[in-house]
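Example with several molecule types.
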Amino acid sequence: MPNITFQPSGKAVDAPSGTELLEATREAQIEIEAPCGGKGTCGKCIARIISGKVDSDSLGVLSPAAVSRGYVLACQTKILDEPVSVEISEQIGREGGQFIDETDDTCLVRCDLFPKEWQPTPLSSKIVLEVPQPQLADGHSDLDRLTRALHQKVEKKDIHYPLPIIPQIAETLRREGENGKVTVTLAETPGRFQVIRIEPGDRIARHFGLAVDIGTTTVAVQLVHLPSAAVLATQTAYNDQVECGLDVISRINYARKPQRLEELRQRVLKTVNHLVNQLCKGNEVDNKDIGGAVVAGNTTMIHLLLGLPPEYIRLEPYTPTILEIPPLTAGEIEIEIHPQAIVYISPAVGSYVGGDITAGLLCTGIARETADVGLFIDIGTNGEIVIGNREFLMTCACSAGPAFEGGGIEQGMRAAVGAIEKVHIHPQTGMPTYQTIGKVKPRGICGTGMISLIANLFQTGWLDPAGKLNRTKKTPAVRVNGRQAYYIIVSQEESGTGEPIMVSEIDIENVIRAKAAIYSAASLMMEQVGLKFGDLANIYIAGGFGRFLDIEKAVTIGLLPDLPREKYRYIGNSSLMGAYMVLVSRESRQRQMELARRMTYIELSTDPAYMNQYTGALFLPHTDINLFPSVYL
Amino acid sequence: MPNITFQPSGKAVDAPSGTELLEATREAQIEIEAPCGGKGTCGKCIARIISGKVDSDSLGVLSPAAVSRGYVLACQTKILDEPVSVEISEQIGREGGQFIDETDDTCLVRCDLFPKEWQPTPLSSKIVLEVPQPQLADGHSDLDRLTRALHQKVEKKDIHYPLPIIPQIAETLRREGENGKVTVTLAETPGRFQVIRIEPGDRIARHFGLAVDIGTTTVAVQLVHLPSAAVLATQTAYNDQVECGLDVISRINYARKPQRLEELRQRVLKTVNHLVNQLCKGNEVDNKDIGGAVVAGNTTMIHLLLGLPPEYIRLEPYTPTILEIPPLTAGEIEIEIHPQAIVYISPAVGSYVGGDITAGLLCTGIARETADVGLFIDIGTNGEIVIGNREFLMTCACSAGPAFEGGGIEQGMRAAVGAIEKVHIHPQTGMPTYQTIGKVKPRGICGTGMISLIANLFQTGWLDPAGKLNRTKKTPAVRVNGRQAYYIIVSQEESGTGEPIMVSEIDIENVIRAKAAIYSAASLMMEQVGLKFGDLANIYIAGGFGRFLDIEKAVTIGLLPDLPREKYRYIGNSSLMGAYMVLVSRESRQRQMELARRMTYIELSTDPAYMNQYTGALFLPHTDINLFPSVYL
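Resulting structure tokens for the full complex:
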């Protein structure tokens, strides 16, 4: 009697106990890719157990969240002595050798940039102790004995016990009796250790951390298992503050009244806590087991998160209240993890170069032991640029707007499952073919999709250098409505939203403005340090606009300078990754503080040359076509 | 036309503008003492301005609270060119050269013990700064500039800014414009300075601190002007926890349920905050201007204040959760002063020798650079004893009960205005004459009153060694009611409460038990260190039971050993005074921490000899009359 049924095909086979699920699919003549040859490394042979038990070891390649929802690697799963129903479906988001979970945005992080050989030294660590039971007349309090036991394991620095910890000590030390174990969560803060939690027994494995990137448009939160430094899952969402203004200046204006400052603080907290709670739920992690967090964000976002009036960031001489924020507790900030968990906030350089950039810089080779000059461009709602090497580090910022994150684009969306990330244009018919993240029905278009679309429309002659769609050649994809023209990418039938997905000339103009702001800032920056783009050895591009940035297309639209493509490296959400690196490594925190202090901030807004540069860049790729020889090859 | 009218006499005189009020009283033939000759130092020529303006400078001798209610020193007050009505009355509590304000218990503190030449180095200090305005491109945040300015005035230690301070910095630094001043309140905590407050302008004079003594029965709070180290006023009240048990053991038992632990915490907070608010109101001090506090109390009281389960204090091996409490903020503890103010809690030695004793020890010469052995006895609801010199310090504790603080005595009261503090007995008639604090109508009897009464009844033969009133000799002062006899001190007509004030044999028994507990503990302690009472060079007696302790009477009842009287020194509420000393001097805090670590705690309750000693002491003065030769002279 067949004991394995495959869905949606309904095919069934009988396989003895111990058979590999991958083998069983072959027996049932179901095609499933396994390019690694069944070693459990490529992550392609994904299946979902609908009912019945199997013996599976898919963790590591699949996230705990996916595993908890029944996903397995067919090659790492053995049939047991009971009937089982298995789903093998294209509907499971799966591509490029990676499993894509709809509720997990880990795909947006370039995990390949994480150090391969990693000795985790997390900022917050758990230590298991045996604290001797009290003795008559030894004169020691519970806290004395605990401190003594701790000092046998850690450096003899002052150990600080916050008040809320102290009431639990007496019970916890006695719970497990003689030779009983207790687990202490300890964080390093300047000059001392801080006790975060004390639990009875050995709880060393239940220790998690958060890396948080707070962008003006997008917030990303990553859940990390601290003892192993493993990323369990990442989730992103729009910053709920978007309702109060699309860029930092409008947020600062909005925050002028104290109750509105508090509203903005509550809005970003709502976004962060929503993501935290989703991550905890999806990964079966108790919020209280999250014992540390690292937050990176631009200076305004951090001011708003902490309820600091951002007014003077906007007014000359652009002075923020604070750049290096002391370690705070999650309870103080109101992030819903363990209230005593220490939250380390990435140090900022100036009003417009924040902790997102000092975090991002950790993911680049700039400022390492090299004389080669590197350029780092972080493309978000603000664009920030860093140029330097081991000897100097200069930085500036410009306002790009949220277009690359799907903001200010009618049918724009974050780079999440369902986002169009590539659009090909048929040169003759003008008709599109597209690709979505997760290979599911399209729901909108993300930043990389916009770049791909505009570059291809431009190169096929369907868009002119000023960003206007071709109205003379006829194609069903271009619809003209009065003075406005639209490009239709997805018909109503194919769309995942029930509405056609289209891009207007206004949307295109927003992208052109954004790319012009960034290109001209980079260009002016080069001028100011007396270098040319050609002098650069490496260019690192960061941004939350997609999983992969097609450098070719970015050069085509004039977002990036026309340099040999091999000099480019796309590093994704480097702010989030830098936060991760600080979370799991004390040395990274140290390095980040040093970098922040080394960087010299240049104010572009007071430089009259900037407006000239910007105006010149408001074309595809640029008014000066000599700057982009490869585009006109 | 007479321009000065004196009340209650109604006498009136005419005096030219500029006349001294003291001179005017003489002109009106009103007698008013001025033993210092009108130098404004003795504080005897007190008057109250009922209406009209005068030119007076009485602060320093009179408390600001008294001055604000119209009290002046007649010798320091000049008549102006307008009519004035002045009260010169015996009703103004005034005695022994000291003004006694009904709402101020400063009289209970032996101010003569405060150092005469004092260089205040308070734990919390205000610093006035000129912080330069921000400059374009200097790369400094507001906080950077503030820290830089601070480091020009204080040691280059880490300066910690708690989160609630940071949002105010931007506005405060800009409020007074170029060269504007800001005042920063700074406290020293281990390894760093902590910013408590930042205010625009020069606010250096408005800086106050609290010394707090939390006793099992009585709570005392003292308001101190920190820049001058001047005590503005002191107030005491019964600890509201008294409702939940009279001694620490019954409080610990009460606290077993978590909601009751919280109830006890709230009760003591209510008492402390009530006193704080009264002091602030009476002295026109804003609670937020109180930027630091020092709290002394026994180990159980401190556990309850902080919400720490006290259970294990009661159970062998008697281990408290914590002895040395890290500096906490007032907001954390919920004391209603500036929420960021640091509260320093006196370090404890053991479960039954707390921070009240390490504070009290600061007021003695024990442990100073001397080989002379000294004894320190703090008589409260618990009695604590310290013996030692520069080489050793031993300490023990016993449970005395609240009798000496007026607790467990039917008509007992705290040593406040209206308390009978001395009772003379006519040897023949058995009739009493008494004295009250503040020379007002009696409202009850305080600890020193009880000692005086019992000693005098005993010495005149109206009380036997077992504490029974003489029923054979007849006196209207002794009333027998069944098996109980009462001694009536105040008749209904003379009483300030409308009820006669009397003491029962049960009340007397409570005092005898209390004195027996203390004497026997001291006696056993001497045995344990291999010394005799006669080896002592100094004996310091502390306690909240009155302003002055008549050592003679205390020896008569057998509370204190029969030693040459000149070896004794009564130091009053030494816990409160020690807290004051720590509040105004960093060196005292340092010394207190060292003392706490040096002290060796002896557990009496496990020593079988204690019960023998105690039983022997349950007589007046003792079963072994050879121990008290002077009583039987």
